[in-house]
Write a structure and sequence with these properties.
This is Zinc-dependent peptidase. InterPro entries: MetalloPept_cat_dom_sf (IPR024079), MtfA_fam (IPR010384), MtfA_N (IPR042252). One of its GO terms (molecular function) is metallopeptidase activity. It comes from Pseudothauera lacus. The longest helix is centred in the last third of the chain and has 20 residues, at about 175-195. Strand 1, helix 4 and strand 2 (about 95-100) form a beta-alpha-beta unit. By secondary structure, the protein is α/β, with parallel strands linked by helices. The chain has a domain at about 165-255: Collagenase (Catalytic Domain) (3-Layer(aba) Sandwich), CATH 3.40.390. The strands form 2 sheets. A 4-stranded mixed sheet has the order 1-2-6-5, covered by helices on one side. The chain has a two-stranded antiparallel sheet with strand order 3-4. It has helices at about 5-10, 20-30, 40-55, 65-80, 150-160, 175-195, 210-225, 225-230, 235-245, 250-255, and strands at about 55-60, 95-100, 100-110, 115-120, 125, 130-135.
Amino acid sequence: MLAWLHALLGSRHRTPQVDGATWQAVEQRLPFLDFLDDGQRRRLRAMALDFLADKQFHGAHGLVLHDRMMLAIALQACLPVLNIGLQAYRGWVGIVVYPGDFIIPRQIVDDDGVVHEYDEEVLGEAWDGGPVLVSWFEEDEAPEGVNVVIHEFAHKLDMENGGADGFPPLPAQMSRKGWAEAFGSAYEDFCTRVDGGDEDLAIDPYGAEHPAEFFAVSAESFFLDPEGLAALYPEVYRQLASYFGLDPRRRCVRGDR
């Protein structure tokens, strides 16, 4: 662990120093941050350092954590709460990082009371009141169109008001009815499309598993493919833009210019 991170964890009164070259190297593998203006980027970097001071990282299966890895995870975790605040992640501290996908043993009980055990291969998991588990891939190994950090931390936001149900606590200016209508109709349509074999979707088909997963994959698409999400479900995009207080579509305009 870096000396600056030791200093950060050892004293909240000392300001760690991360040089510009390190920030740029980390952010190069996160091109979806390009829509942020200079002020927003500075705030995100500062929030990422506060996040690292508050959370405890652990490497699983022998994974050795390094500075750029933790900075990258912190930046991605903080992006959804840039305008919400880190208090949304209060009440838990652990982040477990795996080298690639990993196996979680599951257990279900059928209608006859018979217990069935099986292993599920996953990229990440968020536990209510507990840690966040995420996989780490090098750039040439990362699955395309997937952001496990944003996905799992969207679940954490969803869990703020209880179990994950696709309905996080909304800011005062947002309508619960508007959110329910936008996400409810989109989820129903999305499930129909997935069941029908539609592969031309801006959202991971995994979102059809449950409304909580639909919210999480929609949050992924909001940051990774904002134009695609806005074209597919404009009301969902508008709800997420109000919720996060961000509009990632701006980077498309800036890129065109």
